[in-house]
Specification:
Length: 169
């Protein structure tokens, strides 16, 4: 968490947004938010292995959505330093977390091994795996408080607009 706040300060300091970069970045941020929202409405943490919705295409749609959002914010910021820092942080933080989560899922859900053979870890398949269908649950989305990602993204985009409007020529 402290690393995240440090990155936010660095991000805002290094950002050199243009109207075009904000618009293009917003497209990716919205795509990442939608992926995260859809994924959160399919996952029942520690109760069942999530294999429906975006989990039929990638085992980590929440992290993939975060990566897409991060790339969108890099585009919006127009800073290579932000992009390099994001990639380093993603690899350093998320890869160990993903490995730990997979070890946990292997131990908790015997069907995980077969699921892992069918569905890639991060880069999504073009077609869904043969997973059971499941409907999106707004209740799960709200329970997981995924709306916080939307609020945070709106705040960051608003800050970029303020920086572009008030602090750049």
């Amino acid at each position: 968490m402290p690393l995240g706040f440090l990155f936010a300060v660095l991000y805002f300091w290094l950002a050199r947004p243009s109207w075009r970069s904000i618009g293009l970045g917003a497209i990716a941020v919205v795509a990442g938010l939608l992926m995260r929202a859809l994924a959160s409405g399919h996952v029942r943490k520690n109760e069942a292995l999530a294999t429906s919705g975006p989990y039929a295409y990638t085992r980590n749609p929440l992290y993939l959505g975060s990566l897409i959002m991060g790339l969108g914010f890099c585009v919006a910021a127009r800073s290579w330093w932000v992009g390099v820092t994001l990639v380093v942080m993603f690899v350093a933080i998320y890869l160990p977390v993903i490995r730990d989560e997979e070890a946990f899922l292997r131990g908790k859900f015997p069907e995980f091994e077969e699921y892992a053979r069918r569905v890639p870890r991060m880069v999504p398949r073009l077609r869904a795996s043969d997973a059971p269908s499941g409907a999106f649950s707004l209740e799960l989305y709200l329970q997981h408080r995924e709306y916080n990602a939307l609020l945070g993204a709106l705040g960051m985009m608003a800050w970029l607009v303020v920086k572009k409007t008030l602090f750049q020529a």
